[in-house]
Amino acid sequence: MRTESAKDYGSSLVSAGFYEVHGNPQRGDVVVIRSIPDHPHGHMAMYDGQIWISDFRQQHGFYPGPAYRSAKPPYRMYRHD
Question: In CATH, what is the architecture of 6-79?
């Protein structure tokens, strides 16, 4: 299933065998973050066991930048065994 926005990838992940999880991230987990003003597509990243990586290495958690860290929009985390 194709989607234009990162914020809409949850159903594609579930279709691929991922399931929603809560709590501490594990290596390989994927986070899908809702949109915020001026960032209509949301964001997604994967955890490598130490940091979150999207199209860059995120040094401050899974929220990718100051606007996201300030807004703290809802997110869902997914895992595949």
Answer: Alpha-Beta Complex (3.90)
